[in-house]
Task: inverse folding
DNA sequence: CAGGATATGTAGCATAGGCTATATTCGACG
DNA sequence: CGTCGAATATAGCCTATGCTACATATCCTG
């Protein structure tokens, strides 16, 4: 099948200005995916600290639904990124940056769930889906969510 | 700081019935993340086929914003999963399953963008965020979105 | 129809995030 | 105060998804 390239098609030699925009969107989605784990762990650790006074790797692993070795490795990444501190055999603690991240994530999560419920999503579905959705909600979108919820109160 | 464990904390020996639910949610979010790439590629390939009559790896790579070698590797995974077929140096084609997936993804994407716009998200933000959000929208949530949009028409 | 530009493919590397299996360390208790 | 179970850490493996560098095929054009 030789030469299907029609002028105006999306083939390589034709410059399509909207293509970079799409690539950017995918790139941003990829970046959000890579931040997802850090956000989830920070939020969970903050929750454990608030609830029980300490965050142990075994608890983190069980709540995340992963093997404890996986939790250890990820917590190592959090340490490298300056979000938590930990002494061997002594539990995990959030740095200031970690706390800030956890607070932001928690607020965003609540707002996403609220928005979903407000448009008619059953609460269980809202909670489940929000766990994935929240990481892709930009500040602008979050502000819009807040505005929408405010307006219908 | 010895022995911070207080009875009633979320420590390992206390069974907390809501914990498995949370682990399940994280597990589902992880699974959605792993399906994300396949969905994006299927949708993009369908788009290229519809627009230009063919889907070439170089076009896929540019639109996805990745190196062409990465696109080749991912297309290989799509082949393994039975979503596309490809002959060497001859472009990529969707199988029936691939087409079905692409159609579902496309419909879901449109609905997500519509919903976001309906609650006040600027169109550009809606398009950008939808790229990540859509993969985490379950059927139940999607139905709720459709109902909400229907109701306000 | 030859050669260079472009597309495609392959190889090898890195990181992230899973897992299991195997040490260690801790802490509680007889 | 020694021992044993639980928590923690480590090692090694796998897959997915990126990348760059290099090799090969295709196709367009002079």
Result:
């Amino acid at each position: 099948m030789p030469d299907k390239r029609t002028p105006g098609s999306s083939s390589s030699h034709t410059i399509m200005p909207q293509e970079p925009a799409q690539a950017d969107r995918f790139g941003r989605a990829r970046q959000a995916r890579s931040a997802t784990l850090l956000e989830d762990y920070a939020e969970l650790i903050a929750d454990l600290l608030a609830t029980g006074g300490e965050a142990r790797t075994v608890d983190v692993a069980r709540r995340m639904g992963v093997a404890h070795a996986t939790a250890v490795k990820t917590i190592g990444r959090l340490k490298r990124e300056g979000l938590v501190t930990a002494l061997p055999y002594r539990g995990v603690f959030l740095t200031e940056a970690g706390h800030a991240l956890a607070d932001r994530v928690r607020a965003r999560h609540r707002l996403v769930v609220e928005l979903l419920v407000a448009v008619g999503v059953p609460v269980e579905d809202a909670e489940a889906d929000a766990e994935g959705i929240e990481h892709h909600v930009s500040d602008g979108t979050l502000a819009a969510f807040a505005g929408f919820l405010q307006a219908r109160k």
The CA atoms of residues 2 and 34 of chain B lie 41 Å apart. The domain at 23-151 of chain B is CATH 1.10.10.10 (Arc Repressor Mutant, subunit A).
